[in-house]
Structures are given as structure tokens and as C-alpha cells.
Design a protein that fits this description.
single chain; 413 residues; 60s Ribosomal Protein L30, Chain: A; eight-stranded mixed beta sheet; six-stranded mixed beta sheet; 34% strand; globular
């Protein structure tokens, strides 16, 4: 691993970034270590590649390298809290990947009931030689800090939960919430699945002593976003109205193939269970209107500050203007530039820049847009940041790209 050169942020004293290249054509990625008064937090992106093209070999390579990569950042495999896996073909490779994953954690002393929460989605990596791309988050206590991670059994239909105590604050992550029901039975229609997904989320939150108004970030995956996004918005709007969700969470709504087959929608969420004493602020920018104005119930971003750090959750952001209209129709370069401008302006009022990002996902409608994106990315001086590029349909047919991100700013010590 070699240190990155991009760190121009004033917050970089408590942040380190590394790039990783395990030989040409084998593996590449980045890791970001954030050190606070309470914890060492590691965000890692990995793009495993197998010259032979075997998906099993790619998965094995990743889990062989992972313990060493984590150790270099001062954490271990036992400290991994959640993973997001982007598949080229989830139906074909789900069993292969999960078998390799389970065996790797078992060798590290992590039993099945302690596995990290995981999100399995089919969003093909834009580099065609990859069967997978992975992002993960690991956390361990700092020398004088206090961190505890609580694991819970998977729900009946596969949702996984992690409760993380950092100092006095309790952070809840739930992944793979869906309304598919028993895979042995025919899949319900989309609207029934969407309504059931939100109802299931509400029930799970209640079991941890909280409600949906405490949710700060959601990730919503739709198998056929062009067909179902409008219906999804109706489902979400009705649920939020019924349950008095007034502070709209930051969110991404994106196309993804889901598992098991027949699953039409799925959701991950994050909630702060005891927000008293924390500062929570909806993020705005003059370059974007509010999504609620055109019927989508989400905020452009959410700022969450606790005594040890500030986290900025940037919602899925695209080439949209101050009136909520898509701009630069058919021009991929200009859509990319407008998308980056919107994100830059969301970060700026909070003293953050791209250099503070710990995790990025770029959704390109077509893989062929990758070269143009990388060229613009380099022109903006952003090469080396942990950015996953996947091919995925965006919430409007005329949008060619979308980006979401997380920035972390440690408190001054």
C-alpha cells in the first residue's frame, strides 16, 4: 500500500488514505482510516480481479488479502461491521460468494451469528473483468475510546442488524429489508412488496426501541426502476405521512438486481437511537431544489454530529438544477460536471471537500461512460478517492449518472 496524495483537507491530521494494487490485473482499491477520540474507523473499497475469470477465485483473493489490509489500518476481520457487495450476476454467484465469505470469517473466529451485516446487489462493476466489487466498514476502539458492537440473528427473510455503541451513542444499521416474503411462494407485485418493506422496517425499528422518524439515511434498491419508481414514491410518501416522518432521511433510490429472485425492492437504513445531545441537520445547496417538491420524500443530505466526529451523508445526486429539472440532456460530460458541482456545494457549507469523503458510489447508466467520468474525475483532481463505479439505472430515464457519498470529519482534539 502507498499513501495517497489527495489529502488537502484541513481534517487530514486524523485521516489517512491508502491505495492498494496487488499486482497488475489482480486487485486494486483504497482504504480510509479515520481516527477519533473514540475509535479507529476503516472504510475500504476493493476490486478483486481474476485473470482466469473465475468468480470464486476473485472472492477467495479478496478474503485472503482482507485481513492484512485491515491489520495495516489497526483493525482485524473481527472488527468488520458491514459489507456491500456489487455483483455482476447475483443469481449465478451468490452461493459461491457467500460460501467463500462464511469460510473466511470462520477461519478468523467469527461465527455465523456474528457475521457483518451485508447487502447483496446486482450492479455490475464497470470494469468488465470484475465479478464483484466490495465496500466495507470496520471499527475498533481507540486507546481511550469505547466501542461495542452487538449482532442479532437474521430476520426470517434475510434482514441483518448491527447495533454499534460509540461512546455514549448507539448507531443502528439494518440491511436487506424487503417485502418479498417466502421465496417458496410466488412473488407479490411491486406495490405490495414496497408497502410490506416499509412495514417490516417499522416493525424492526420498534423491536430496537425506535421509530422511523429517527432514521437518518436509507438506501432503496428497485429491480425495475424505470417501471416502478413512481409507484415507489407513492408507497414511501403514504408511509411517511401515516407515521409522521417529517425530517426526511437522506436517501438513494437506484436500480439493482436483488436476491432471492422475485424480490422487487429492498432497503438498508441507518438510525441514531439516542439523538439527544447530537446535532442533526438537513443539508441544502442553492444549486438544487428540495426533492420533496417533485414528489420524492428524501433530503439532499444529512449532517450528524456527535462529540467525536461529524458525518455527512450525501444522498444520490445527479445532474439536476435549482428547479429540480434534469439538465444537459444526452451530454454525459456535462451531466457528470453538474453532478460533481452539486455534491461540492452540498459539502462546502459544512467545511468539507471531496478530500473528506470516505466512501463513494458512482452509478453510470451505461458502462461506456466510464472513460469520460474518469477523465472528468482526474481533471477535478480527485483520482485516488475510494470510488466504486457500477452500471445501474438511475431514477429518471434521462439521467446518465448519479453519485452518493459519505464524508467523515473528526472532531478537533
Amino acid at each position: 500500500m502507498t499513501d495517497m496524495r489527495i489529502n488537502s483537507s484541513p481534517n487530514s491530521a486524523q485521516r489517512s488514505c491508502c491505495t492498494c494494487t496487488e499486482g497488475r490485473g489482480v486487485c486494486n482499491g483504497e482504504s480510509v482510516l479515520i481516527t477519533t477520540s473514540q475509535a479507529r474507523e476503516v472504510f475500504l473499497r476493493c476490486a478483486p480481479v481474476s485473470i482466469s475469470g473465475s468468480s470464486r477465485e476473485q472472492a477467495v483473493k479478496f478474503y485472503e488479502c482482507l485481513p492484512r489490509k485491515l491489520q495495516e489500518a489497526g483493525v482485524t476481520l473481527k472488527d468488520v461491521v458491514w459489507e456491500r457487495i456489487f455483483f455482476r450476476n447475483v443469481k449465478a454467484d451468490y452461493d459461491v460468494f457467500t460460501d467463500v465469505r462464511r469460510e473466511a470469517y470462520w477461519r478468523a473466529g467469527v461465527n455465523t451469528d456474528k457475521l457483518p451485516a451485508a447487502t447483496y446487489i446486482e450492479q455490475p462493476p464497470c470494469r468488465h473483468e470484475q465479478a464483484f466489487e466490495l465496500q466495507l466498514y470496520a471499527i475498533a476502539p481507540a486507546d481511550t475510546g469505547r466501542v461495542r458492537v452487538h449482532s442479532f440473528p437474521r430476520s426470517e427473510w434475510g434482514a441483518t442488524t448491527k447495533l454499534i455503541e460509540i461512546g455514549d451513542y448507539r448507531h443502528l444499521y439494518i440491511t436487506n429489508i424487503n417485502g418479498r416474503g417466502n421465496p417458496a411462494f410466488p412473488a407479490p407485485p411491486f406495490r405490495e412488496q414496497s408497502d410490506s418493506m416499509f412495514a417490516t422496517a417499522r416493525q424492526m425499528l420498534q423491536s430496537y426501541g425506535t421509530t422511523f422518524p429517527k432514521v437518518l439515511r436509507t438506501w432503496c434498491y428497485l429491480d425495475d426502476i424505470d417501471r416502478d419508481y413512481d409507484e415507489f414514491n407513492l408507497s414511501r410518501n403514504e408511509f411517511f405521512k401515516e407515521h409522521d416522518v417529517r425530517r426526511l432521511p437522506a436517501s438513494t433510490g437506484i436500480r439493482a438486481g436483488l436476491y432471492p429472485p422475485g424480490t422487487e425492492c429492498s432497503m438498508d437504513l441507518y438510525a441514531l437511537l439516542n439523538p439527544d445531545g447530537a446535532s442533526i441537520e438537513v443539508m441544502h445547496t442553492p444549486t438544487l431544489n428540495e426533492a420533496e417538491e417533485y414528489g420524492s420524500a428524501f433530503s439532499r443530505g444529512m449532517k450528524v454530529s456527535t462529540p467525536d466526529k461529524t458525518v455527512l451523508f450525501i444522498s444520490g445526486t445527479a445532474s439536476v438544477d435549482e428547479q429540480g429539472a434534469t439538465v444537459h440532456l444526452g451530454d454525459e460530460r456535462k451531466q457528470i460536471e453538474r453532478m460533481l458541482l452539486n455534491i461540492k456545494e452540498l459539502l462546502r457549507p459544512h467545511g468539507a471537500t471531496f478530500a473528506d469523503l470516505t466512501q463513494i458510489i458512482t452509478y453510470l447508466k451505461w458502462r461506456r461512460e466510464l472513460d469520460t467520468f474518469v477523465q472528468v474525475w482526474d481533471e477535478w483532481g480527485l483520482s485516488g478517492l475510494p470510488n466504486t463505479f457500477v452500471e445501474a439505472g438511475v431514477c429518471r430515464p434521462n439521467l446518465l449518472c448519479e453519485m452518493e457519498a459519505i464524508a467523515v470529519i473528526p472532531a478537533r482534539r
